[in-house]
């Protein structure tokens, strides 16, 4: 059983008479890959600063590695952590000396420093930069060196505060893959603050959504993507179809998307629900293969409004009586037969809809 590396209870942090962090309980286990997401000002960076003992808190309790931080030596706890920021913050020195810094602070021998620096640079595919001046590096190279510097002493906890926000998608994905590989090889716990939910899906086994300084949702990334707890989380994760609705109680729950479009929903819904979420991949173009399931499906007639090519998956935008739906359709179902302004039928299983 994994033990908690971070445990926060009833912590409140105020700034300028404003409550910026309010956590009732949050625990992160040894070896977890956790992503923290939320809009600007939601408290994500404040959380990392709290965990890295860089910001005081007025109420509650914080434990790191099983110890109450107020009863322990701050320096000894922080030496078990490492943090990487948005900006590279490299010293005006060589790559070798930047990465070696943490080991020199710890009194490591020259032989060990050389071995560990080379090993860390190799892990992040930048050993060839070892003698380069840090200020001459590209953005991607600089962040690789920052990661090597952060992980050269094999911290138990790695904190990443949106370090890849300025990098292109291929570079971000490559760096996330390297972090995951290195961290998993030594059982390291990683907390990543990130805006891009695609990165979260690629990297994390658990996502924590912050809204207004509080934990709004904590679950597996795909579960949050498909079943957001509210409209704000749906917006944040990039839900394909976020549709206003109202709930009518008849014999069953009736979800009304407009005066003319409604469907029977087989689950329980709060009468105050106002939003219907439909992931693009639950929407299908009706064909012979779905005819046998027709009575179980919600079937809508619409006109193809836009076709957006993609690698393997196309986005097909359909106008259903003024209601705009985005479908995610395999390429082979689109190419050579689907045309703009074509009249089609769109079908989905109402059990796959999510109402909040």
Short précis:
It contains nine helices and 21 strands.
Task: Explain what this protein looks like in three dimensions.
The structure is a single chain. The protein is built from 9 helices and 21 strands. By secondary structure, the protein is an alpha+beta fold. The protein has 2 domains: 4-236, Rossmann fold, CATH 3.40.50; 240-355, RNA polymerase II/Efflux pump adaptor protein, barrel-sandwich hybrid domain (OB fold (Dihydrolipoamide Acetyltransferase, E2P), Beta Barrel), CATH 2.40.50.100. The strands form 5 sheets. The protein has a 6-stranded mixed sheet with strand order 6-7-8-3-9-10, with helices on both faces. A 5-stranded antiparallel sheet has the order 16-20-17-18-19, with no helix packed on it.
Helix content: 10-25%
Mean pLDDT: 93
Distance between the termini: 35 Å
Order of helices and strands: EEEHEEHEHHHEHEHEEHHEEEEEEEEEEE
- What percent of residues are in strands? 25-35%
Contiguous helical run count: 9
- Helices and strands: which structural class? alpha+beta
How do the helices and strands line up, and which of them pair or pack?
Elements: E1 4-15, E2 18-29, E3 33-37, H1 44-51, E4 59-64, E5 67-68, H2 74-78, E6 81-84, H3 95-105, H4 110-123, H5 139-151, E7 157-161, H6 169-185, E8 189-193, H7 197-203, E9 206-211, E10 214-219, H8 221-226, H9 231-237, E11 241-244, E12 246-249, E13 253-256, E14 262-265, E15 275-278, E16 284-285, E17 298-308, E18 313-320, E19 323-330, E20 343-348, E21 354-355
Helix pairs in contact: 3-4, 3-5, 4-5
């Amino acid at each position: 059983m994994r033990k908690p590396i971070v445990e926060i209870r009833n912590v409140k942090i105020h700034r300028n008479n404003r409550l910026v962090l309010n956590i009732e309980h949050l625990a992160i286990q040894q070896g977890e890959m956790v992503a923290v997401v939320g809009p600007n000002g939601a408290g994500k960076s404040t959380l990392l600063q709290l965990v890295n003992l860089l910001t005081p808190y007025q109420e509650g309790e914080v434990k790191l590695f099983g110890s109450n931080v107020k009863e322990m030596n701050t320096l000894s706890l922080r030496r078990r952590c490492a943090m990487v920021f948005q900006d590279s913050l490299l010293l005006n020195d060589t790559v070798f000396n930047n990465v070696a810094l943490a080991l020199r602070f710890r009194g490591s021998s020259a032989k060990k420093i050389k071995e560990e620096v080379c090993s860390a640079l190799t892990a992040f595919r930048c050993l060839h930069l070892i003698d380069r001046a840090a200020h001459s590096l590209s953005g991607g190279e600089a962040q690789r060196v920052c990661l090597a510097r952060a992980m050269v002493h094999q911290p138990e906890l790695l904190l990443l505060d949106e370090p890849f926000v300025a990098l292109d998608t291929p570079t971000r994905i490559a760096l996330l893959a390297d972090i995951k590989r290195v961290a998993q090889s030594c059982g390291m716990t990683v907390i990543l603050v990130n805006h891009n939910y695609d990165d979260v899906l690629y990297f994390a086994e658990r996502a924590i959504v912050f809204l207004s300084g509080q934990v709004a949702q904590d679950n597996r990334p795909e579960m949050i993507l498909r079943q957001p707890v509210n409209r704000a989380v749906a917006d944040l994760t990039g839900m394909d179809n976020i549709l206003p609705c109202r709930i009518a109680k008849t014999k069953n729950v009736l979800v009304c998307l407009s005066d003319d479009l409604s469907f029977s929903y087989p689950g329980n819904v709060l009468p105050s629900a106002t939003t219907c979420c439909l992931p693009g991949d639950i929407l299908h173009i009706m064909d012979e293969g779905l005819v046998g399931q027709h009575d179980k499906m919600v079937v809508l007639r619409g006109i193809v409004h836009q076709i957006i090519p993609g690698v393997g998956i196309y986005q097909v935008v359909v106008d259903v009586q003024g209601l705009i739906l985005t479908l995610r359709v395999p390429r082979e179902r689109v190419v050579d037969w689907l045309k703009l302004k074509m009249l089609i039928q769109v079908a989905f299983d109402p059990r796959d809809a999510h109402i909040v």
